[in-house]
Amino acid sequence: MTMTGPSPAVPVTTTVPRPSAVDGCFLSYERDEPGFRPYVGAVLEVTGSCPGPDPVRAQIADRVARMPSLACRVGRRGGRTVWELDPAFDPRRHVHEVRVDDGPASLDRAVDALLGEPIDAGAPRWGVWLLHGYSPDRYALFYRAHHAAQDGQAVLDALTALFGVGPAVPPREPVAEAPGGRGTSGFRNPLARVRNIPARAVAQNAADTVRGLRSTLTWTPHRPLTGRTRLLSAAVPASWPRDVAGALGATPNDVCLAALAEAVRDWVPAEWRARPGRGRELHVALPVSLRPPEERFAVGNRVSAVRVPLAYWAASPADRVVAVARATRRVRTEGMRRVLRAQLECLPEWLVYRFVRQSCAASSAVDTSGLLRVPRRLALGADPVEGVVPTLFLHGDHLFAVSFLSYQGRVRVSFTVDRALDDVGDLAALWAAAVERLWREVTAGPRGPHGPVSAADPAGPADPAGPADAAGPAGPAGPADHFSHENHGSHAEHAHHAHHVEHRDTHVSGPGENS
Residue 271 and residue 335: Cα distance in Å, rounded? Predict the structure, then answer.
């Protein structure tokens, strides 16, 4: 593996905001756990003959001003974390070339090594790795960023800024505020945000916080986690979740989450007994974007998360979609967003950090990005990006994390799974099959009682009770040794991409839709 060097600096200026408590939490977590790798990003699958690193550097240098926060690094002032412009910022230093041997296995090993590697803490914490040599007519661009600096929306903005086809998206000017308000340069009076928040939203959020302390549905794999992970991915036509959502009064994100619950039911081996507890539910930690338009390109996180039940015990897949839609609808209100925004601005970092560390327990919830969407076509020069595979990280005792991403007419799922589970079946393939079954049931089969969810019933029914120790049927045996399945229509053909990813200690906005 050969790494190449940089070129001259490109000056960039921007207004640097005060970091949020979430930013500081990820940095503190990393300091406390040296093996923790809180990196989010995406592998871009490019078609064409690899042009070498210089055109990549030239395009990024030409485009980096579209995303000014890419010039920000972590600093310390007066004992607290700050974002500051890197005076020596050179975007060309953030582009690296990785030459690999012929064959997809070499690409596997290169991605494997990179996912577990730290990003230089002394510079803006992002990079693009050009991976080539494994195919004469394909190469990959691997974008990685530290989660303290970029949330899911910021990752999408960075990809679009650096590789998007079309004109740049102009940054919005900050909204003028009265004295004592808040501007993009920092939080002057965060308590002002608390005013005029609906009492119902406050009460709902308080109840959710209390419920979030309870254990979710978990399993005992009877084996220690390895700290090494692999990435499994599959894709389905974007029309499938969209059709199901339209028929059931849901969103495509709701459909993706409902299919996740069905995939987990099919995947959990029979010998892994679910923890006792009648009606114990499976939850995901679903991100909600709190980034206002004027902070579109600000460094750091503008995101919170809510715990959402996935109706694990629902009688049918369509019933599960309806129940998930009810659960997410109550989160998609402006009042709830204002509550979460006030929390982000008002809560001290130590308290947020305590919540983050508590979420390390496997019994908290499954980490997910929700459904992300790349808004335009990506390319390097004239070479099109045919596929985008999002990457997440694992932390604590979590067995897996999951991301959904829509790009160019396909919805891709990616699972980051601990290697201790290599012989327990392929969650990504099971998810793709679950989406197809839902689509067939809703569009071709009898609808039965399922209709659009009523807006007058946002709470939905109580969680259906399930058997005390039910864990769902066993998944298919044998390890999945590939990176991606492509579900290509009526026969659900799974075309092997011959690319699995593993790494050490490895997320990425309505709720879930661009986090």
Answer: 44
